[in-house]
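Hi,

I'm pasting everything inline rather than attaching a file, because the server keeps stripping attachments. The sequence lines come first, and each chain or strand is labelled.
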Amino acid sequence: MTKPGKVFVLPESTSHRPVIIEPSLCTGCNRCVTVCPSDVFLPAETKGRPPHVVYPGECWYEGSCVLACPIPGAIRLELPLSQRVRWKRRERS
Amino acid sequence: MKKPLPAIRWPYPLEWDKTEKAACDVLVLGGGMAGCFAALGAARSGSSVILLEKAAAETSGAAGSGCDHWESAATNPCSRVSPEELTGAMIRSHHGYNNGISHYIECREGYDRLLDLEAMGARIRDEQGLFRGAEFRDEATKLLFAYDYVNRFTLRVFGTTFKPALNRECRRSGVRVFDRAMATALLTGGGIPSERVTGAVAVMARTGKLLAVAAKAVVLCTSRPSRIWLFSPEYPGVSEFRPPQTTGDGHAMAWRIGARFTMMEKSVKGEWSGTRSYPPYGTGNNHNTWYACTMVDAEGREIPWTDRDGRTLAGVSERYRPAPGQRFFLKGGGEPEFPFYEFQGPETLPVDELLKKGYKLPFYADLGAMPEMERTVIWGMMVGEEGKTRVPILQTYSERGFDPERDVLQSYGDGWKSGSFLPQERQLFGLPGGLLNDWRLMTSVEGLFAAGDALFASNCAGHAAATGHYAGRHAAACAARRASSAIDPRQLKNERERIQAYLKKRPGTGWKEINAAVCRIMQNSCGAVNTEELLRAGIAALEELREREMPLLSASNPHELVRCLEVENILTNAELIIHACLARRASSRELHFQRFDYPDVDPPDWNKFVTVRKTAAGVEEGEEPLEYYGSLPDNYERYNPERGGRRR
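And the predicted assembly:
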């Protein structure tokens, strides 16, 4: 069993980025870390810095992080390309 | 060029060598809608309560980020349908394969739970007058209705406000809430099947610390199993409709101690999954959240709606009314795949019929063709308040320029759904199986109660809330009659060893690899095509996976440890499902269950609940009559004498 204090984690490598944090706006309050049901984030080691998105594949894309974030625009949800739905201007018959 | 990602030091204290002990009267496992209400129901009855939630109670569970409607609120002041009529309709329309007890509780108490939520600060009515004058708004109570506007028993609600309010109320009421605590095992007295439950063990999802709780009664408020047939290693988070961490841990835990399950042989062809479909409620459609949106074909021709008798409906308003001579209609979660004439609601024609008539795919939802109030209640309230629609759909589409008045939203798959699935791509959806319950919502194990999706034939948020509170109340009464229980050191030691085995450095198979393998086995041996030999081959393949591959599965931090424990539960639930499929030696239309070796569909001898439970010797099959619960109002009042006078 690994001893406490010796554990490092590499952010999961995925082809999609569900959550995009704007570092110039994020205050590192970690509200997103607190509420994320899938626990995809880890808080930064330095206080006030944006959290790390460590398990992006496990995102449920429900947007709890965006709803909890106190700074508009500091965090954004991006649906995977394969989940994007099309619309068009309506026509009348 | 992309920079390589730096390694991050685990930021939480690592305490997997520690065990914390606690004790309470009522222990609630799972902090979703059912679990929070179970905790409140028990606390209000005077019990000391501990609630363990794998994620964070503020946002967790299937209704964690919202719910847009509350079904079966038969006691709301505007309802024109009684709890008895409504439960009777739910049972009859499923040919008896439904949980009469839990749905009667939903019909009797669901509206009370909404009033509770309102008292906690959540929004259940249109106080602001956003929809003043709309046909679906009652001007006196400001309640908003969905589906059947004449009979008014399903409410449109502002569900994004619910879980935060419930979370605050639990803490305010003295419930000890442990967030990020995954329950892993039930502690018991007796062998297997266990005679009674005495507590549970959990692992903290960020520190790895073990938590052992002694309790006089336990309420299982965990989810239904998921990721049994559908899994995406690239997008595991959207493998299924419900959140990825709702893996049916309670089913697996209860199976291991020998609790009785029923209807676990029922699964349906997939309806939602990131591997196959577009986001739920994010495509053009006219069901559920989007009921009754106008649909058009590729050339803009409006698609006709008809009532149950095939009469073409003239306007939008008629889509929300029963047919001439019809008492009321049923819509929403748990709606039968096969329409039941008596309660069949307005519908557009089947897709194949539309294609024969010359309508062209793809179809689109045309919100702009709806009257303003109907348009804005769908796009803005329902799409906005339903779980996972506020941010990914309403906000995201709006930012990308979707204009509900001018744009039409594409529909995919076979007409209305968000995608097309193969027959073997299955899900537990539409009143799936679960724990068998009595009138106290107690399972076959003394002291172990169940609510919400842990129960058989569960469906939506109102059912979860009502059964949660009810089970909490009865668990409190059970706890009051029992002496305190102690944690059995031998059981705790065994569980610690099981959990810690994943932390040993081993030549790691990853949890995703195991999950994908379970799904492949299940797609091939169980669900779409069932025969005795094929099901037995599935069991053998799962056993081989358990024996050969599980010992190689390893976790390097507490987060991964939880994922490993979940995948072990997924494997266990797959075995439970196969055993249930073996036990029903007949095909059944209502259960979407086809046995090639027993092709007779619903032969009279098999119109019953088939049950399975694990014993020391193997698996014990059993049965219960479809109406095992007896008279609904009489039994309800017998078991809840204090509530006899509250019925409208």
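Chain B has three domains: 23-224+433-490, 288-410, 493-620.

If the labels don't parse on your end, tell me and I'll reformat.
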